[in-house]
């Protein structure tokens, strides 16, 4: 085991894990009153603020402004009416129910191969056991669904964080490289395209904001993980 100072790497990994956890929940879970309360209360912004202390979330600000506009526009409306509005827009945006009004549904294989359950799906499924993880049985979506890919990134970031806490910089580097590979071989090849469609077709500013926030973060994270890898490699080389 190689030990090195974390120099904040563990905190960056934790912040990245928090953001991927937030996005994973937004895309995987059906809207409910707890989601609305987190958005209309301070929980949603609190989670982002905690991550912002370690990450540069400038590229997410445009999206956050749209979510804030949604909150201001609907804060005085009955929650059940707002929930219906959010649920209807989510169904149309994420389920591909109308070819004219909906984006293509957010599966990597649909965007990259033009079909469900393509090679991309299989490759994502194989990534879980490579990381010593299993696809949760409660998930009925194909493994290349956007929320599942984000949850896989959460897992990778959390595993990196745990490696730093155990003092194993070499293992942390392995997870950083795994995250970089998954971002560049999967997420960054299709998620920005979906986010553009989602933004253009969203009828409420809430999902316009989520689209902009998602797009901004995954692009930012692609650069961030490269920088993290370069610093860790340099530190390990200096200690060799």
Secondary-structure blueprint:
Layout: H1 9-28, H2 33-40, H3 43-52, H4 61-74, H5 79-94, H6 108-113, H7 119-130, H8 146-165, H9 169-201, H10 205-239
Helix pairs in contact: 1-3, 1-8, 4-10, 8-9, 9-10
Q: What is the CA-CA span between the terminal residues?
A: 12 Å
In the CATH scheme, the class would be: Mainly Alpha
Strand portion: under 5%
Name the CATH superfamily assignment.
Answer: TorD-like
> In the CATH scheme, what's the topology name?
TorD-like
Q: How many β-strand runs?
A: 0
Number of helices in the DSSP assignment: 10
What does the radius of gyration come to?
A: 18 Å
Percentage of residues in helical conformation: over 70%
Order of helices and strands: HHHHHHHHHH
Mean pLDDT: 91
Work out the count of structural domains.
Answer: 1
Q: What does the overall shape look like?
A: globular
If classified by CATH, what would the architecture be?
Orthogonal Bundle
The chain-level structural class is: mainly alpha
Question: Major β-sheet, in short?
Answer: none
Residue windows where pLDDT falls under 50 for at least 5 positions: 1-5
């Amino acid at each position: 085991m190689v030990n090195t100072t974390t120099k904040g790497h563990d905190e960056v990994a934790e912040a990245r894990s928090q953001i991927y956890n937030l996005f994973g929940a937004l895309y995987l879970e059906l809207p409910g009153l707890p989601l609305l309360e987190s958005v209309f209360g301070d929980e949603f912004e609190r989670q982002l603020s905690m991550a912002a202390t370690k990450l540069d979330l400038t590229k997410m600000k445009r999206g956050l402004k749209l979510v804030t506009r949604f909150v201001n526009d609907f804060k005085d409306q009955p929650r059940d009416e707002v929930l219906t509005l959010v649920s209807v827009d989510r169904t149309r945006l994420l389920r591909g129910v109308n070819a004219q009004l909906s984006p293509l549904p957010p599966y990597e294989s649909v965007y990259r191969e033009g079909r469900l359950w393509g090679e991309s799906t299989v490759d994502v499924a194989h990534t879980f056991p490579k990381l010593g993880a299993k696809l949760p049985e409660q998930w009925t979506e194909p493994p290349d669904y956007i929320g599942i890919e984000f949850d896989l990134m959460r897992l990778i970031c959390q595993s990196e964080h745990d490696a730093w806490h155990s003092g194993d910089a070499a293992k942390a580097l392995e997870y950083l490289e795994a995250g970089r590979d998954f971002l560049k071989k999967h997420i960054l090849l299709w998620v920005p395209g979906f986010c553009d469609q989602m933004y253009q077709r969203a009828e409420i500013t809430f999902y316009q904001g989520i689209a902009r926030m998602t797009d901004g973060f995954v692009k930012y994270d692609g650069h961030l993980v490269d920088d993290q890898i370069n610093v860790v490699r340099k530190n390990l080389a200096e200690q060799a």
